[in-house]
Amino acid sequence: MGYRILEPADVPAYLNERGHWPDPSDIQVREVSDGNMNRVFLARSTDGTRRLAVKQALPWVRVAGPSWPMSPERADAEARAYEQVAKVAPDKIPAILGYDPENYALVMEDMSDLEVLRTLLNEGASYGPHTSARIGEFVAQLVFATSDFGMESADRKALLAASVSPELCKITEDVVLAEPYIEHEHNHWHEALDDLATEFRADTRLRTEVADLRHTFMTSAQALLHGDLHTGSVMVGEREGAPVVRVFDPEFSFVGPIGYDLGLYWANALVSEERARALGSLSDHSDQLALSWEAFESEFRALWPTRIDTFFDDAYLDRFLRRIWTEAVGYAGTEIIRRIIGFAHLTDLTTLPDPVPASRRALLLGRELIVRRAELTNPHDVRAVVEAP
Length: 389
Ligand code: SR1
Ligand code: MG
Hints:
This is S-methyl-5-thioribose kinase. With 389 residues, this protein is of the alpha+beta class.
């Protein structure tokens, strides 16, 4: 039949045809598309005992429309990433029930009993003790297993080739790692930030450091990444009295620098902290970078003795972790900046009564993280920069 864009009314027959739903007359469907890129539908039976989610990639960027075409093959990358994570961290992703490559559609567990982390934080919730630790572990488990330490050389080369994702990488290379530092039609910002946007475009030191991070993103094939690990890609909640953390939406997945995933999470945590500071509602925000890094490092170190290639010794592990740390600090800076003067902004800031003071603080913090990343060697150093007046 070929690729067809699903509308809510198509979903019952679609799920039935694909073998996911026996009685298509007993199904209620609602669209809950929220991210920048795709459409998501939730289906439930009248008594609520059967519930599924369908995510479909469109041939364009959803929020831009057909004027920004984008191959729906990004759904293949997402399905591949889920497959890899399912081998090493199945408890940290939604259950995937099927992938339909013809329609670029994933059928997965409905997680509507959980909440998007960003939404909760914007409503004033705290992280609690588990969320960032689980994220740190998630990154370590995925990247160790798909690095040259966790995977046989030939298998890794095959993964690397299969995970090449030129269009999605180009989005990141452009909207995150270039456009905010040049004049570009995608960019927009609050008019009270004009001076900083202009200053950043003229800052040659900043530009060279971003160029370095951009080139590392393009060339450093360390491990399979989530690729877009912001707080809108994490769901949290409780099931049967136990905390649940689920990472979703890995469509930007590719084999790249490990620090990119950590840096994205940190940036979004730091922006959320600026929101809380502006509203006078700081809670456990300041702990999150350290918690996720410590969990990442400890899990990675725990996996190290299982490495396949023992030419990599313990001294190399220390060096490798330092490199990941430094790059993550830099990527955190780029993510903060692009979310304020680039294409895709964050509701953390845009929904503040006055977004300007928090946005200014965040922009300046972003620049510091990029240009001083080599001298910020641990979470305390970063904290000192965050808390500097
Ligand atoms: C054109 S897409 C802009 C952003 O949305 C996605 O969620 C990624 O973060 C991307 O950079
Ligand atoms: Mg997304």
